[in-house]
Amino acid sequence: MTEENTIPATAADVKPITTAPTQEQTFGKSELLDAGAILKDILGIKAGNIVGDLGAGGGMFTTQSAMIVGNQGQVYAVDVMKNILGEIESKARMTGLTNIKTIWSNLEMVGVTKIKEASLDFALLVNILFQSTKHFEILSEATRLLKPNGKLLIVDWSNTAPGFAPPSDRQVDPETIKQRANQLSLTLDQEFKAGNYHFGLVFIKA
C-alpha cells in the first residue's frame, strides 16, 4: 500500500478490479445499504479516482470503492478506531485489494487527517454524523480534502424506529446538514433515498 496518489497515464490503462468478491460475499447480505449501487450509479465513481472513506467503520464502502477505482486509483480508509483499521487491512489482504491505505484520524479536528489537501475526487461520510455533535467540523474536514468540483457523499439514518437503529435523538436532520454545507460553499447536487432506513445527499465543492 502506497502513500502516494497514483495518476493513470491514459484512460485505457485504468481498469476496475473485477476479481475481488462482491459486497455480499465479503460482508454477507445487507438489506440496509447497497454500497456498489450508491457509489457507481448515484455518486459516479470511476476507475482511476481517488476516494476518501471518512469514518470507514466495517469497510464496506472502502472495499466497494477500491473495486471500482481499480489498481490505478486509491482509496483512503479513515477512522478513529485503530482496531477497525486493522480489520480493513485484513479484509484488503484477503480480497487482494492493494489500493487501500488506512489512516488513523479524528475527523472532528479540522486539518489533522494525513491526506493531501484538495486531493480527493470523492469523500464519503456514511453513518458517521449520527455518532457526533460536531457536524460542521466533520464537514469542514471532508471539504478540505476534496478537490474543486469533487463530490461529498453523506448517508445517514432517516428511520430510527427499528431495534437495530441508533436512538432517535441521534438522528441527523438533512436540512441542517444542507445549511452547514452551504456555509462551506458546497452545492447540493442530489438528494436520494439510500435504502429503507437512510437518506443520501451529494454535494459538489466549489
Please tell me about this protein's structure.
It is a single chain. The chain is of the alpha/beta class and 206 residues long. The protein has a single domain (23-205), classed as Rossmann fold (3-Layer(aba) Sandwich). It contains six helices and seven strands; from the N terminus they run ααβαβαββαβαββ. The chain has helices at residues 23-27, 35-43, 60-69, 82-95, 135-145, 174-183; strands at residues 50-54, 74-79, 100-104, 120-126, 146-157, 186-193, 198-205. Strands 3-2-1-4-5-7-6 form a seven-stranded mixed β-sheet, sandwiched between helices. α2 crosses α3 (60-69). The radius of gyration is 16 Å and the shape is globular.
Describe this structure in a few short sentences.
The protein is an alpha/beta fold.
Q: In order across it, which strands form the biggest sheet?
A: 3-2-1-4-5-7-6
Shape: globular
Global structural class: alpha/beta
Q: How many separate structural domains?
A: 1
Question: Nearest-angstrom radius of gyration?
Answer: 16 Å
Count of DSSP strands: 7
How large is the count of helical segments? 6
Measured distance between first and last alpha carbons: 31 Å
Give the arrangement of secondary structure elements.
Elements: H1 23-27, H2 35-43, E1 50-54, H3 60-69, E2 74-79, H4 82-95, E3 100-104, E4 120-126, H5 135-145, E5 146-157, H6 174-183, E6 186-193, E7 198-205
Parallel strand pairs: 1-2, 1-4, 2-3, 4-5
Antiparallel strand pairs: 5-7, 6-7
Helix pairs in contact: 2-3
